[in-house]
Amino acid sequence: MSFARRMLLPLCGALAFTLVAGETPKPALAPAKKAAKATKAAPLSAPVKVTSVEGITEYRLGNGLRVLLFPDASKPAITTNITYMVGSLNEVYGETGMAHLLEHLVFKPSKNFSGKDGKLTPVQALNKVGARFNGSTWNDRTNYFVTFPASDENLKLMLDLEADRMVNANIDAKDLWDPKEQKGEMTVVRNEMEGGENEPLRVLMQRVMSAAYQWHNYGHDTIGARADVEHVNIAHLRAFYEKFYQPDNATFVVAGKIDEAKTLALVNEILGRIPRPTRTIEKNWTLDPAQDGERQVTVRRVGDVQALVAAYHVPAATDPDFAALDIFGQIMADTPSGRLHKLLVDTKKAAFVFPFVHASREPGLALFGSQLPKATNLDEARTALLATLEGVAAQPLTDEEVARAKQQLLKQVDLTLNDSGRLGIGLSEYIALGDWRLFFLQRDRIKTVTTAQVQAAATKYFRQTNRTVAQFIPAEKADRVEIPAIVEAASLVQDYKGNVKLAEGEVFDASPANIDARTRTFSTPAGLKVALLSKKTRGETVSASLSLHFGSEASLMGKDEIGSLTASMLLRGSTKHSRQQIEDALDKLKAQVSIQGSTERLTASITTTRPNLPEVLSLLTEVLRSPAFDAEEFGKLVNEQLAGLDKAKNDPQAKASNAFQKHQSPYPAGHPRYAGTIEESIAQIKGLKVEDARTLYQAFYGGTGELALVGDFDDKAVEAQVRQLLGDWKAKEPFTRIPDRLKEGLSPLDAKLETPDKAQAFFIAGQPLAIKDTDPDYPAMLLGNYLLGGGAMNSRIANRLRQKDGLSYGAASQFQAGSLDAVGGWVAYAIYAPENLDRLVAGFKEEVAKALKDGFTAEEIQAAKTSWLQGQASSRAQDRELAGRLRSNLFIGRNLAFSADLEKKVQALGNEEILSALRKRLDPAKFNYAVAGDFAKGAKK
Question: Which residue in 22, 27, 205, 453 has its CB near the most CB atoms, within 10 A?
Fold first, then answer.
């Protein structure tokens, strides 16, 4: 991946909750055999230091494993990330999707994490430390990353886990597909595959890439061909694993609160004992010839939006032209400065545009696309898009455009460097290109690229004969673009030193008691409550969270749709600066600012650095207190909102969730919390004018709310500035909190909604609850839900629907309780193939009934406690999340002592208390159900 924003992301496997679905085939698998990888410990040799760049040091172990250590004591967390140099690029005919299948299977029980005789499974081990974890597969690599509270015990457990799945994964045929039980991980993967079929842009991207490549594996989607996934040969899959999952084909990153010498010794002791393999990995030699004419592809499916993509062949990411191409992508498709944005979005021909300059180890693609309303003339939009991309000779790029794009890209670099965990994971993309130091080299290249170089690269590659679009037009003569040879990364980084290390942060104790002791609060005359937690952070970063409250139940009636649009208009221009000037200022200040809201409230989040905080706060106040409400910008916003709603009309998750929410909502039409239909929202938004937003703002906006800052700042200076900027800002209409309510006389819902031509289906079930988080049984309900479906994959519902029955790629539950009013709810949801609806509902009901009858084992309860408690610790260690918690606590009127007390209560729970709470609160006879999918088509399978 390059520094620019991306539309097509690496395919996530084990835990990413992407809404997908599958069906149940009967593949032919080879008989299962035990993996033949050598597990005898290798002689241990001392690690060799290779290089050190900007605080990251590379070592090479005796078995060939590359180890990157990145100490950062500012956060009490550690991130590990192992990258294997294997992806869809390495797959052969008939075996596409193997790299992704392995990503799933290595989360299954292995030799030393078997789940038997007191041993943990891989997922149980990850949950034990309260980890945030995932794996992802892409063209050139597969990686597994984990973030967990820093401790020697946790780190050792994670190292043991990585060592075991590198060497001892079972790769068992029955885990993949059990013909007798008619279940397995293969159907889960296929369930994930079919989820992508619901997304018009993803489908179009797959088709465009397959048309753009004749021979190269980059033309194959990472998830693989359906037939290959369904008929995978287990012996071949095991051989694929044994070939590529080896220490000499991997790079292991440890970032966070670590002692470098101690960590290196531990890594060497555990991972360094894995023997170096004797096999060799052949270098890929298949490359596409120069394209000899434009190619076209058309996809016709049921839907409510149009999409358009143009792709051009470009060199590998190591090529000198690549930095210029990255900048060109920003210039073309950035929001709102991009040429395509101005041409298509500003004129309302499109809802949005996007760039995807594929940073790859071998020659790749630069793709530009757009989503368009159904009424838009697609031919006109296509003509405009291609003319803009291929017309830079007639309309040369300007120095201002190049400078802005460079600033935007370099801002993302700075934000990444300020977060050791984010950088530790992100380095996978550069490891895949050939060397992790390419991250820094690409940054340096971007800094030095000239306008002339960007212009030259654009005219070289963005030509008619080098593109793939939606139709074919023959050319009169051949016009080929020759892609340069691959530049080896080693020759580029041989003597690379990098820049000066960033400032280090302090060692911070993220316990509730210490956070409360370090947090200072004050209030302004206008009613803004403020919490300040000042501490030294890596890169002098600061996170802030703001919430403002508006009006009363009576005064806000009839204004339910205009509220979110009013909040969204604030960053689109003030009376002093245009939308573009605001964007440019934030880029210059290395700040990320987001604002969203409803009729009742506005929320804003900020990430910046200590030197820039005063100016960022001033700019935020400017957009809050002096918005322009430009009519043209409002029109574009309405167009964007309508495009999103049009897409939702036939989306299974949106339709089922909307029906479920509407049934349980107690609020009438016109109420600020009214749960209208998608069609009602479309009708209301179409009738809105910019004057409606201006009127709402003038009546209700003011400085009543909460603000929390966490990070590196001068709290006295911030207090003075906040008092000056927001202290006197009062709304004309006073704020009175609207109480939460439950719907009276609610009868159970059983809704079945058709969404034609959608391979994925969505299930949601649950009931509203009269409960507060101060009720005696709240801790038991909290842990009970975690056991039922809240604990990632290690919960009853997920274990049943995914692990046991193989019906769903993602299944979970959520529980909420009010803090000020006794209003909450419990909800469960799952994704699945439409033809599996009956089996999924039956499995869900059986698991809930079993839990309400017998409760949970002592082992389950202890594992859930450990996982939940470590998860709380991880959350407090993230400054952005901590700022949000402090802000929320200001509104409720409490501090983190409440959280500490809650954790003690959860720790003391047993099965009797949990079972009693669940039986008291949950009544399956009162559950509301809503499902959406192509059930008519599913019934024919």
Answer: 22
